[in-house]
Amino acid sequence: MDKNGEASTLDLLLTVLARVRKIWKDELSVYPYLKARDLTILDWVYHSKSPITMQDLATHLHVSPAAVTQMVANYEKRGLLQKVPSQIDHRMNTLQLHPELVKRIEGQRQLLKKQLENFEAFTDHEFDLNKLLSKLAEFFEQEDEKTDPRP
């Protein structure tokens, strides 16, 4: 705090960083076992414009179909991917993200969009670090109040 009782830029920055760290830690605790390769695969499945088969994944990763079968079974067990019968050839399965995972991703996108909208209120000459950090800290406090289970 400064002489006027206002939070310093450093205090505000540390508050915001602590909150962001907590959010990331909470999110990672749900899927602590994901590695970079897992995230790359899930991202590829999520953003694919066409259905992805097990063979497509094996080709993409340069691994055997047996390796993909084990990998996908593991992802299914964790609730990350699901196999869906192909609409073109019912002998094949396509891969999709599990609906719960898609729901979480979309929720995070909406939250990020909401956070970014808070910055639109600033014009170039108003883009002051203290104001920005105060706004972020205020937003995080409001979010904590919404999710706090205590009465």
Automatic annotation (TrEMBL):
Highest taxon listed in the record's lineage: Bacteria
Pfam assignment, any one: MarR
One MF term in the entry's GO annotations: DNA-binding transcription factor activity
GO biological process assignments: response to stress
Protein name (database record): HTH marR-type domain-containing protein
Annotated HTH marR-type domain residues: 32-127
SMART domains: HTH_MARR (SM00347)
